[in-house]
Design a protein that fits this description.
Number of strands: 13
Structural class: alpha+beta
Oligomer: single chain
Largest sheet: 5 strands, antiparallel
Shape: globular
Strand content: 5-15%
Order of helices and strands: HEEEHHHHHEEEHEHHEEEEEEH
Strand order of the largest sheet: 2-1-13-12-11
Distance between the termini: 22 Å
């Protein structure tokens, strides 16, 4: 598997134009063979990015940690997609109508539960237990309609913990990463060879190896929606597992169902279980096939099993501040399209 000259040029051009300070891009095949290209720096005035540099994966956590754990538990019969949250969390949506108590696992996976997209939990609570309590009492609106929600995957991460009896990082390692030998995927904090993210006004310091997402902080950095770090090799190994429908992830039937259209947003976006599917304007290009996801810090992953190729992009586009750079959308489209041959 070779990363094309066109894809390399896109990556170098993005760094030269200041769209991101540093990045790693890669193309992957089903056997896990991959080719990477690194450019830029890990922080302003810092060391060059290397292929081994680890990045805060942000919302890729949803589909690289929480989703495969859920699918594994469902495949093993420990959990059902049509289970109501009240079966695991007796106080879910207490005294509310509509209520989270009636929300099914599948609705959380497809972002159709009606939960808010985001809430500033970090400004109100300070630990995992109260964060979970706050999310379990979140109000619902527009149930059945797609609303991408961090809170939904916070609940799914908590559900993994309750069903498996393990904290999410331990569950992901035991159920997914160890069997697939993905040592480079782990929750923080990390000490070295990591790209810096933002100078956080709330925490008052530059974040490097510490989760960027504020709400993940109150989950001790180990949350269903964010907190995972990874390098290109480990993320390539994970993508390859989806390319070959590896049974470690789930049963063949469940893997197919996970990437089958389950819900459509008012903006035309199409959702599977966690994954974003092809639709007009999707970040991988208008002619893209397969499925993928993005992360706020500047990460993205697109997987095309039909063609037998996946592409991944790791950047620290929020460095030194999240509002300092605005070129990530164009970079994603150009890079993933260059790998997959789609339109830009």
């Amino acid at each position: 598997m070779r990363l094309s000259d066109a894809a390399r040029a896109v990556l170098d051009g993005a760094v030269e134009a200041g769209a991101v300070p540093g990045l790693v891009g890669a193309a992957v095949d089903p056997d896990g063979r991959f080719d990477t290209h690194a450019a830029g720096v890990t922080r302003e005035g810092g060391a060059p990015v290397r292929p081994s540099t680890r990045f805060d994966l942000a919302s890729l956590t949803k589909v690289v940690a929480t989703l495969p754990c859920l699918l594994r538990l469902v495949s093993d019969g420990a959990l059902a997609l049509d289970e109501r949250l009240a079966e695991r969390f007796a106080n879910a949506g207490w005294f509310q109508t509509p209520s989270l108590a009636d929300t099914k696992v599948e609705a959380l996976l497809t972002h159709t539960a009606g939960l808010p997209a985001w809430q500033p939990l970090f400004a109100r609570v300070g630990d995992r237990r109260t964060a979970l309590a706050a999310v379990l009492q979140a109000p619902l609106s527009s149930v059945g309609r797609v609303r991408y929600s961090d809170l939904g995957f916070m609940l799914l991460g908590a559900l993994v913990e309750r069903v498996s009896g393990r904290r999410l990082d331990d569950a992901a390692r035991a159920l997914v990463y160890a069997p697939l030998r993905l040592d480079g995927l782990r929750f923080g904090p990390l000490a070295d060879d990591v790209a810096a993210s933002e100078v956080c006004g709330w925490r008052g310091r530059l974040l490097a190896g510490e989760v960027h997402d504020e709400n993940a902080v109150v989950w001790d950095g180990i949350a269903g929606h964010a907190g995972l770090f990874g390098d290109a090799a480990a993320l390539a190994g994970y993508a390859a597992a989806w390319l070959r429908a590896d049974p470690v992830l789930a049963s063949p039937e469940l893997l197919r169902r996970a990437v089958t259209p389950s819900a459509r947003g008012e903006d035309g976006s199409v959702r599977g279980f966690g994954w974003l599917l092809p639709s007009a304007g999707v970040f991988a290009g208008d002619t893209a096939r397969g499925f993928g996801h993005t992360g706020f810090t500047g990460t993205s992953l697109w997987i095309d099993p039909e063609a037998g190729v996946a592409s991944l992009l790791l950047t620290n586009r929020v460095h030194p501040h999240r509002a300092a750079r605005d070129g990530i959308q164009g970079l994603r489209r150009r890079f993933h399209a260059a790998v997959h041959g789609g339109t830009r």
